[in-house]
Amino acid sequence: MENNEPNKTSSAKFVTGAIIIVLVVAAAVFAGSRRGGEDKVGSEPLTPPPPASVNPPAVSPVPPPVSPGAVSLKVYFPNSKLDPGTPDCAKVFSVSRTIPATRAVAKAALAELLKGPTAEELSLGYFTSINSGVRLQKLSIVSGAAKADFDEELEKNVGGSCRVTSIIAQVEETLKQFPTVQKVEISINGRTEDILQP
Question: Pick from 51, 109, 116, 124: most CB atoms within 10 A?
């Protein structure tokens, strides 16, 4: 009769090793998911999440490939071809933009929004309700709340509740693409009361 003791010992060591590896990997995954869910005061992700499914684009310009040292993000505009007829003033659609890599990606997204649609985006029906020349003066993100302060150009000659609703939707959706932002407060020169009135 052969001695099977060495085979049993190496099998037991293999099974024990495999169990330890599985437990270590599970602990690392759990710790990573917990760390990702915490609010990080004043921090922003280096790359944005996939586009929000609230208003997925049916027509969108083809985004350029993202090169090393660059980041892709979304900006949101109304679109006369995707929302024809009597438009839903709060309905905005995402377009992709590629920018140089930055830690202040939410601020960069608002800068892209304030540039307005590109010529290609205009040809596809995208437009902006935001006045040209608007400047972002300050952006802070604390405990899930983004506070975006603009200059007075944001509300200059803004008439009609539909346009005001559209401006707010463009800013909010552009910022809410980032997991660190759950709500948005818009201010003009530090004022939050009586702004963007139709």
Answer: 109
